[in-house]
Prior knowledge:
With 605 residues, this protein is of the alpha+beta class. It contains 18 helices and 20 strands. The chain starts with a helix and ends in a 23-residue tail after the last strand.
Amino acid sequence: MRKLTCLLLVLVMALAVVGCAPKTPTDPTPPPPVETTLVVGTAEISGNFLAGFGNNAYDVMVRNLVFGYETYSTSPAGEIVLNPTVVKAVETETDPDGNKTYTFTIHEDLKWNDGTPVTAKDFVFYTLWYAHPAWVEAGATSTVGEGLIGYQDYKKGDTDVFAGVKLLGDYQYALTIDASRLPYFFETTYVSAMPQPMAVWAPGATIESGTAGAKIVGTDLVKAASDVAAGFRFAPTVTAGPYKFVEFTNNAATTTINPHFKGNFEGKKPQITHVIVRSVNQTTDVDQVIAGELDLVTGVIEGAKIERAKSDANTDVNFYARNGFGGVFLHCDFGPTANADVRHAMAYLMDRDEIIANVLEGYGSVTNGYYGLAQWMYEDNKEAIDAFPHFSRNITKANELLDKTEWKFESNGTTPFDASKANAAGTYLRHNAAGEVLTIKHFGTDNNPVTDNVEIQFKANMPLAGVNFTIDIGDFDALLAHYYYAYDLPAGERKYHSFNLATNFSVAFDPYYSFHSDWLGTWMNANQVNDPVIDDITVRLRELEPTQVAEYSAIWLEFQERFYELLPIIPLYSNQYYDVFNKNVKGVNTTPFANWSAIICDISK
């Protein structure tokens, strides 16, 4: 709770910050005196480096390197802070109707990596672009601008003018939050922005701005959005982060230092010349660090690998509680897993403790909900959360639940299923009245001990409840495509019900975006949850003043209770993350809220 209180103080104080940015020269920063290269090993990178397309965590690492100059940053301590390197001043004003305007003045010495100036129009363009229907038509999903006046009309294409956005000058702009969207516990996220290069994304475009709002003119936005989604998305050339994108080939993203980068929110600049993010075999990733083939691998959870790293004289580790969790993620709108009793039965058809013991080997624990061990809300509600009934292997309970579903018959569709006849060979299965077999089709990734253990558990236990379990193994990119976009597949082509995945949370924990029915039929509500109770809870969770910490914590617990009842994800574990690196790499002081790519300016070699 103390950490959140500090966070709230930072948010309040950030509104009053004026002219506190560090002074830096406008000339390009000279490169480090000694050229160095950091090679980071990760799981598979999809090569999709723009937000809005269901990026995986490893794509986001590359994004963190090449994009920058956000107006609000997240500190390693998990605080949302104004970025004084970018923002010279910010003022707020609330009108008689309750609409709240944030007026930002940015510094005049910001540059893109090609040396051209970053101006207020690039920040305005960010909001206008990401909220425009042309971006949706290009295949993206975005919540940018959603709290601002006029968002819905602009998003739907009813008008080409965004009323809550105004360009006031070369280095000043304003964003106005709609009174109906206030209060909001994470208010500053409504007005947070990161510049995007209008000259590159929409050549020939300009921004018209007046009392009615702002709009992009002078270009075909549908074509421009399509071009960005097909090109820049995979090769982000002009950016404003600490590094410049060079190429993505042979499963490796190569970046090099951006000499025009002014600094992060603390004014720090990168110290390493080149950073390469490479997809590597997850079974041998730590061994590759020990052998000197990689400099760093992050998020290691397997106990055996951690022990090898700790005992090696040439490697070092940093560990922290995870701000996230892993589990079996389910589609709640398709086939048997559309039934909550089936989802609960699946939770009783595995020994979660055994999975954790086999994979984490003492470096994590079983979880009971949608949370991570590092979240202050969990710390506040630990006693209540830990008292949730524990899902453990219970074949009898699973059969009782499945008897309540349509799959309660033998193959003739009329004779009741007799659990005593079920066997490990799977020769006696459940059917519905139409004679269809109860089948769960799972997708997992190769070289993944979690996949291996989930497979072992389900193959052993599902037949004992009359369930036909099948599993396909593929690469991570294919898994994400089926998980995020299966709702959009033609009839007959969709086939998977469950996936083993893990997720990390942002500091602004707002499950509205992942579970509210407003996002049905999009990749954001990937589990395709459609529940009025969850809708109500997630809305109430966000409609709080930033100071209503106790109220937020209480509603968070309500959310966890309903999540447990619905079980769109069977929670498996939250764990300690270990980052393993060569001892000649310094500054890897990662935290639950800042991975290596977020603190790249602290790292040297």
